[in-house]
Specification:
single chain; about 200 residues; alpha+beta; NADH Oxidase; four-stranded antiparallel sheet
Length: about 200
């Protein structure tokens, strides 16, 4: 873990375009995965799955479906953030997890029923849209967490979800929505450009 403040983390984090190929220590990766695991989500349903690719041959295969972007092959680990549209399955898993952590089944019944009613009112399209928005919360933890741990990252939407799903043999309800390659940068960040405060806050 670095000694950066959170303010410094968000100031210094940038979308790395090329990594140096050095492999991140597994204990550092495990720390990042824990940060991702603790990401917030609506109702705490956590409708995401993250596929982790370390095999170089698979990275090379996926490059053809990543618009040729070098981040996919020069990174240490390629994290594929997927929306999990099996909302009901996650509600059932959350109920089980809450009980395993000491919750009384009767005391959480109302909460579980509320979540179930929410899920039942969603079309497949709405499930994907909602799960995708939630997954970006986990992605945010990955981006800032990587910088906090002393390495770099790059959020990427420039890839073919359909081809990724095919190459990786993903289930129909696991939909890739964003990539997050992590590693050590081999490029130089440009000055951070953002809108002025009065363009954002009102």
């Amino acid at each position: 873990m670095t000694n950066l403040t959170f303010k410094q983390i968000v100031e210094q984090r940038y979308a790395t375009k090329k990594f140096d190929g050095k492999i991140i220590l597994q204990e550092k990766v495990d720390e990042l995965l824990e940060m991702i695991r603790l990401a917030p989500s609506s109702f705490n349903i956590q409708p995401w799955k993250i596929k982790i690719i370390t095999d170089q041959a698979m990275k090379e295969k996926l490059l053809a479906h990543s618009w040729g972007q070098q981040q996919a092959t020069t990174c240490s680990h390629l994290l594929i953030f997927c929306a999990n549209t099996d909302i009901k399955g996650n509600i059932d898993l959350l109920r089980k997890t809450m009980i395993e952590n000491g919750a009384n089944p009767d005391s959480i019944k109302g909460y579980v029923d509320m979540m179930s009613g929410f899920e039942q009112g969603m079309t497949p399209e709405k499930k994907l849209a909602w799960a995708s928005k939630q997954t970006y919360l986990a992605l945010s933890n990955a981006l800032n967490g990587a910088k906090a741990l002393g390495f770099d990252s790059c959020p990427m939407e420039g890839f073919s979800p359909e081809e990724y799903s095919r190459e990786l043999g993903l289930s129909e309800h696991i939909v890739p929505i964003a990539l997050c390659p992590i590693g050590y940068s081999a490029d130089t960040p440009k000055p951070k450009v953002r809108f002025k405060k009065n363009e954002v806050f009102f």
